[in-house]
Amino acid sequence: SNIVVDGIDIMLALDVSGSMHFQDYDDDKRSRLHVAKDEALRFVNKRTNDAIGMVIFGKDALSRVPLTLDKKIINSLISSLEIG
Fold first, then answer.
1. Separation CA 13–CA 22 (nearest Å)
2. Long-range contacts of 56-62 (CB under 8 A, 24+ apart)
3. Which of 3, 19, 24, 35 has the smallest CB count inside 10 Å?
4. Neighbour tally for 78: CB within 10 Å
5. The pLDDT of residue 1 is above 80
6. Considering all CA atoms of the chain, what is the largest pairwise distance in Å, rounded to the nearest integer?
7. CA 65, 70, 75, 78: dihedral to nearest 10 degrees?
8. In this structure, what are the phi and psi dihedrals at residue 7, rounded to the nearest 5 degrees?
9. Cα(62)–Cα(8) distance, integer angstroms
10. 61: Cα separation from own chain's centroid
C-alpha cells in the first residue's frame, strides 16, 4: 500500500574545524563539537518524515551523506564525527 506523507528536504552543515575544540561555558565542559553533535542528533530524531543529508566543513567542505530517510545512518555518522 502507498502512504502519502508530507516532509521536506534538509541539509545539515556541521563545522569540524579546529575551533570546535573550544568550550564556551565554564559550567558545561563539552566542546563546541560535542554540543553541535548532541543538538544535531536531537534535531534529526524529531524530523521523522523529512529527508536529511549532511555536509561537513573545516578547511574544505565535504558532502558526507546525501538526502536520505535513513535516520540510523545519519545518527551513526553524526556520532562518529571528529575534528579535522
1. 18
2. 56/13, 56/14, 56/15, 56/16, 56/81, 57/13, 57/14, 57/15, 57/16, 57/17, 58/15, 58/16, 58/17, 58/18, 58/83, 58/84, 59/17
3. 3
4. 23
5. no
6. 53
7. 0
8. -160, 170
9. 22
10. 14
- Round the average pLDDT of the chain to a whole number and report it: 91
3-state secondary structure string, the chain? CCCCCCCCEEEEEEECCHHHHCCCECCECCCHHHHHHHHHHHHHHHCCCCEEEEEEECCCEEEEEEEECCHHHHHHHHHCCCCC
Residue in the block written with cell 555518522: 77
| Closest C-alpha to 64, from 72, 73, 49 | 73
